[in-house]
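Mods, move this if it's the wrong board.
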Amino acid sequence: MNLPKKMFFSLLIGASVLFTAACGNADDNANEETATQEQPAENNGETAGHAEMPEPDLEGVPDLVAEVNGEEIKKEEFESAYVAQFQQMAMQAQMTGQEVDQEQLKNQIAESLVGQRLLLQETDNRSIEATEEETEATLTALAEQNGLASSDEFVAALEEQGLAEEEVMDQVASQVKVDKLIAEEAGDVQASEEEVQNFYDDLKAQQEEAGGGELPPLEDVKSELEAQIVQQKENKAVQELVAELREEADVTIHL
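Not the wrong board. Structure tokens:
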């Protein structure tokens, strides 16, 4: 596990969701990821082996990146989020040969961080709290996702990277509160049989068009497709909420 200092919070809070909202292609990304997971890995490896990994361009980033209803987003927070997202996009660029538009990415990351801050502020406005039990359960789940045996090991690993235990607990509690906010906005989200079938049919058509291998039978991947559909619905609820909050907020971006 290698979480850069100060990036832990961005990962928890759902930067990928908000970043995708800024790009405007959440559903397309989810479909493409599933549709291409059966593609031969050796081709990607060959492409990556012949491409040079680009470097993030952070020149000119101001000390104060943005202000959100009087709260500041500092350069350190922005750079951590930017570098993490840039590294993912740079790896994709190695495979596709398409360059990363770093100016566009900077603006998207700034908007993502603004969205994160708006969501947190909204949890305070709605008096949404996180109990110790909920925080510990989330921490345990994060430990498992990172292949660690316990929440204590997870905290210790983050401490080795310079993140204090108190800060970790505060950030996990923030994640719990945002999760509650998302659940409140999205409601009881479920995937119907028809939605699952349509999603599967769309993926199958994409796979055939791309010349990839056959998808597994629907019953073998049904639970994964249901989870993706639910995630898409929750993402949409988050995007709509952030858009509403953004319209009423006092936001200044200094990039």
